[in-house]
Design a protein that fits this description.
Distance between the termini: 38 Å
CATH class: Alpha Beta
Order of helices and strands: EHEEEEHEHEEEE
Structural class: alpha/beta
Radius of gyration: 15 Å
Largest sheet: 8 strands, mixed
Helix content: 10-25%
Strand content: 35-45%
Strand order of the largest sheet: 9-8-7-6-2-3-1-10
Length: 164
């Protein structure tokens, strides 16, 4: 089971991940092919999201507006999950994030939730987990990028993220 992330989506994710030093997140939209999920669009946290060192709460209304707009061109598009940026090398979902998954499974049969960890080399790692109503405890997935992560070709974010 894989979460497939095309290069253009990777670039969008990079911008969101490095837009703040605090915890943040993004919403995943895409399609399912067999056992794998392909991310075709993402929504950032939105203007009313809460970013703190140990807490992030996205703006669900903003994600819904983005989703409805994207569905005009692709009616088969699905809200497939959420990714959360953790600051302290913690690869597992927090209690609050697991509660959000539980809520999401009331609305969706399947849902991906995962953690993004930034690292000092200006890249990030993604640790997705697949959840379903029949498998609410979750199964680890593999994040697969279209090509080798082209981080050295991505634009640098502000100086505040530069290694000291």
């Amino acid at each position: 089971m894989k979460l497939i992330i095309p290069t253009d989506i990777t670039r969008q994710m990079y911008s969101i991940v490095y837009d703040t030093e605090l915890a943040t997140g993004l919403t995943l939209f895409g399609e399912k092919e067999g056992q794998d999920f392909i991310v075709t669009a993402v929504a950032g946290p939105g203007p009313d999201a809460i970013h703190q060192e140990l807490h992030y709460s996205g703006n669900k209304e903003y994600a819904t507006v983005v989703f409805n707009y994207l569905r005009q061109d692709n009616p088969n598009l699905k809200h497939i999950g959420e990714l959360y940026v953790h600051l302290f090398e913690r690869q597992c979902l927090s209690r609050g994030e697991l509660d959000a998954v539980e809520e999401a499974l009331k609305e969706h049969n399947e849902f991906i939730a995962g953690v993004i960890l930034r690292n000092h080399r200006w890249d990030f790692k993604v640790f997705p987990t697949y959840f379903s109503r029949s498998q609410p405890e979750g199964t680890n997935m593999e994040a697969v990028f279209d090509e080798q992560m082209p981080y050295r070709n991505l634009p640098r974010r502000s100086a505040r993220f530069r290694r000291r």
